Amino acid sequence: MSLRRRMAETLDVIVARDPSIRSRSEALLHPTVLALAGHRVGNHLYQRRRYQAARLVSTVTKVLTGGIEIHPGARIGRRFFIDHGCGAVIGETAVIGDDVSLYHQVTLGSTGWWYDRERDGGGDGRRHPRLGNGVTVGAGATLLGPIRVGDDALIGAMALVTSDVPKGAHVRARAARTRTAAQGAEGGDGP
What's the chain's average pLDDT? Predict the structure, then answer.
Protein backbone atom coordinates (compact mmCIF):
# COMPACT_ATOMS: atom_id res chain seq x y z
CA MET A 1 0.00 0.00 0.00
CA SER A 2 1.35 3.42 -0.92
CA LEU A 3 2.21 5.97 1.74
CA ARG A 4 -0.55 8.25 0.43
CA ARG A 5 -3.24 5.55 0.69
CA ARG A 6 -2.00 4.51 4.14
CA MET A 7 -2.21 8.13 5.36
CA ALA A 8 -5.72 8.50 3.91
CA GLU A 9 -6.74 5.28 5.66
CA THR A 10 -5.36 6.57 8.99
CA LEU A 11 -7.20 9.88 8.61
CA ASP A 12 -10.45 8.10 7.75
CA VAL A 13 -10.11 5.92 10.87
CA ILE A 14 -9.63 8.99 13.05
CA VAL A 15 -12.70 10.70 11.56
CA ALA A 16 -14.75 7.51 12.03
CA ARG A 17 -13.68 6.77 15.63
CA ASP A 18 -13.34 10.23 17.17
CA PRO A 19 -16.65 12.14 17.15
CA SER A 20 -14.85 15.42 17.87
CA ILE A 21 -13.00 15.23 14.54
CA ARG A 22 -15.06 16.38 11.57
CA SER A 23 -12.68 16.14 8.59
CA ARG A 24 -9.45 14.67 7.29
CA SER A 25 -7.76 18.06 7.56
CA GLU A 26 -8.69 18.27 11.24
CA ALA A 27 -7.59 14.64 11.70
CA LEU A 28 -4.09 15.63 10.56
CA LEU A 29 -3.69 17.30 13.97
CA HIS A 30 -4.73 14.20 15.94
CA PRO A 31 -1.93 12.65 18.06
CA THR A 32 -2.53 9.23 16.48
CA VAL A 33 -1.15 10.54 13.17
CA LEU A 34 2.16 11.63 14.68
CA ALA A 35 2.38 8.57 16.94
CA LEU A 36 1.95 6.20 13.98
CA ALA A 37 4.32 8.15 11.74
CA GLY A 38 6.96 8.15 14.46
CA HIS A 39 6.43 4.46 15.11
CA ARG A 40 6.74 3.57 11.43
CA VAL A 41 10.05 5.42 11.15
CA GLY A 42 11.30 4.00 14.45
CA ASN A 43 10.19 0.47 13.55
CA HIS A 44 11.93 0.73 10.18
CA LEU A 45 15.18 1.64 11.97
CA TYR A 46 14.62 -1.03 14.63
CA GLN A 47 14.18 -3.75 11.99
CA ARG A 48 17.55 -2.70 10.54
CA ARG A 49 19.18 -2.99 13.99
CA ARG A 50 19.67 0.76 14.30
CA TYR A 51 18.42 0.64 17.88
CA GLN A 52 19.74 3.99 19.12
CA ALA A 53 18.27 5.89 16.19
CA ALA A 54 14.98 4.01 16.60
CA ARG A 55 14.89 4.87 20.30
CA LEU A 56 15.62 8.52 19.53
CA VAL A 57 12.69 8.69 17.10
CA SER A 58 10.46 6.99 19.70
CA THR A 59 11.50 9.43 22.42
CA VAL A 60 10.95 12.52 20.24
CA THR A 61 7.56 11.15 19.17
CA LYS A 62 6.58 10.58 22.81
CA VAL A 63 7.38 14.21 23.64
CA LEU A 64 5.55 15.58 20.58
CA THR A 65 2.42 13.48 21.20
CA GLY A 66 2.08 14.37 24.87
CA GLY A 67 3.04 10.96 26.15
CA ILE A 68 2.18 8.24 23.64
CA GLU A 69 5.05 5.80 24.15
CA ILE A 70 5.35 3.09 21.51
CA HIS A 71 8.51 1.01 21.57
CA PRO A 72 9.97 0.84 18.05
CA GLY A 73 9.99 -2.97 18.23
CA ALA A 74 6.21 -3.25 18.68
CA ARG A 75 4.25 -4.59 15.70
CA ILE A 76 1.10 -2.65 14.84
CA GLY A 77 -1.55 -3.60 12.28
CA ARG A 78 -3.63 -1.41 9.99
CA ARG A 79 -6.30 1.08 11.04
CA PHE A 80 -4.88 1.47 14.56
CA PHE A 81 -6.31 4.29 16.67
CA ILE A 82 -5.41 5.84 20.02
CA ASP A 83 -8.04 8.20 21.42
CA HIS A 84 -6.49 11.05 23.44
CA GLY A 85 -3.34 8.97 23.92
CA CYS A 86 -1.77 10.69 26.91
CA GLY A 87 0.06 8.08 28.96
CA ALA A 88 -0.43 5.18 26.51
CA VAL A 89 2.47 2.70 26.67
CA ILE A 90 3.10 -0.12 24.19
CA GLY A 91 6.02 -2.44 24.94
CA GLU A 92 8.73 -3.80 22.67
CA THR A 93 7.26 -7.24 21.93
CA ALA A 94 3.61 -6.19 21.79
CA VAL A 95 1.70 -7.30 18.71
CA ILE A 96 -1.42 -5.37 17.73
CA GLY A 97 -3.84 -6.62 15.07
CA ASP A 98 -5.88 -4.62 12.57
CA ASP A 99 -8.73 -2.27 13.59
CA VAL A 100 -7.60 -1.95 17.22
CA SER A 101 -8.56 1.07 19.36
CA LEU A 102 -6.82 2.11 22.58
CA TYR A 103 -7.85 4.90 24.89
CA HIS A 104 -5.64 7.08 27.08
CA GLN A 105 -3.41 5.65 29.79
CA VAL A 106 -3.54 2.11 28.39
CA THR A 107 -0.50 -0.02 29.13
CA LEU A 108 0.52 -3.04 27.06
CA GLY A 109 3.42 -4.03 29.28
CA SER A 110 5.46 -6.86 30.67
CA THR A 111 5.16 -8.25 34.18
CA GLY A 112 8.66 -7.04 35.02
CA TRP A 113 12.26 -7.90 34.28
CA TRP A 114 12.41 -10.29 37.23
CA TYR A 115 9.75 -12.50 35.58
CA ASP A 116 10.70 -11.91 31.96
CA ARG A 117 14.02 -13.67 32.36
CA GLU A 118 12.35 -16.75 33.84
CA ARG A 119 10.00 -17.54 30.94
CA ASP A 120 10.13 -17.87 27.21
CA GLY A 121 7.13 -15.63 26.41
CA GLY A 122 4.86 -18.46 25.32
CA GLY A 123 7.43 -19.85 22.90
CA ASP A 124 7.75 -16.74 20.72
CA GLY A 125 9.92 -14.59 22.98
CA ARG A 126 7.17 -12.08 23.69
CA ARG A 127 7.01 -10.30 27.04
CA HIS A 128 4.04 -8.11 26.10
CA PRO A 129 0.42 -8.72 25.03
CA ARG A 130 -0.80 -9.79 21.61
CA LEU A 131 -4.09 -8.14 20.63
CA GLY A 132 -6.25 -9.69 17.91
CA ASN A 133 -8.18 -7.80 15.26
CA GLY A 134 -10.98 -5.45 16.30
CA VAL A 135 -9.96 -5.23 19.97
CA THR A 136 -10.92 -2.16 22.00
CA VAL A 137 -9.06 -1.31 25.23
CA GLY A 138 -10.67 1.26 27.53
CA ALA A 139 -9.05 4.15 29.38
CA GLY A 140 -6.56 3.23 32.08
CA ALA A 141 -6.62 -0.50 31.33
CA THR A 142 -3.42 -2.44 31.96
CA LEU A 143 -2.57 -5.64 30.08
CA LEU A 144 0.57 -7.38 31.29
CA GLY A 145 2.69 -10.26 30.09
CA PRO A 146 2.68 -12.42 26.96
CA ILE A 147 -1.09 -12.82 27.04
CA ARG A 148 -3.36 -13.13 24.03
CA VAL A 149 -6.51 -11.09 23.59
CA GLY A 150 -8.83 -12.63 21.00
CA ASP A 151 -10.43 -10.85 18.06
CA ASP A 152 -13.24 -8.39 18.85
CA ALA A 153 -12.64 -8.53 22.61
CA LEU A 154 -13.47 -5.49 24.72
CA ILE A 155 -11.29 -4.59 27.69
CA GLY A 156 -13.09 -2.09 29.88
CA ALA A 157 -11.68 1.01 31.52
CA MET A 158 -9.31 0.43 34.45
CA ALA A 159 -9.25 -3.37 33.94
CA LEU A 160 -6.11 -5.25 34.95
CA VAL A 161 -5.62 -8.20 32.59
CA THR A 162 -2.90 -10.79 33.24
CA SER A 163 -4.34 -13.86 31.50
CA ASP A 164 -5.63 -14.70 28.03
CA VAL A 165 -8.96 -13.25 26.90
CA PRO A 166 -11.09 -15.29 24.47
CA LYS A 167 -12.43 -13.98 21.18
CA GLY A 168 -15.39 -11.62 21.63
CA ALA A 169 -15.12 -11.55 25.44
CA HIS A 170 -15.77 -8.46 27.56
CA VAL A 171 -13.48 -7.83 30.54
CA ARG A 172 -14.56 -5.21 33.04
CA ALA A 173 -13.00 -3.77 36.17
CA ARG A 174 -15.05 -3.74 39.33
CA ALA A 175 -17.30 -0.71 39.40
CA ALA A 176 -16.98 1.78 42.23
CA ARG A 177 -19.71 1.68 44.84
CA THR A 178 -21.20 4.73 46.47
CA ARG A 179 -21.63 4.63 50.22
CA THR A 180 -22.97 7.30 52.49
CA ALA A 181 -21.05 8.53 55.52
CA ALA A 182 -23.65 6.81 57.72
CA GLN A 183 -22.97 3.45 56.10
CA GLY A 184 -19.24 3.82 56.78
CA ALA A 185 -19.81 4.83 60.43
CA GLU A 186 -22.10 1.88 61.04
CA GLY A 187 -19.31 -0.56 60.35
CA GLY A 188 -20.27 -1.30 56.76
CA ASP A 189 -18.10 -3.57 54.70
CA GLY A 190 -14.95 -1.41 54.85
CA PRO A 191 -13.46 1.21 52.55
Answer: 91
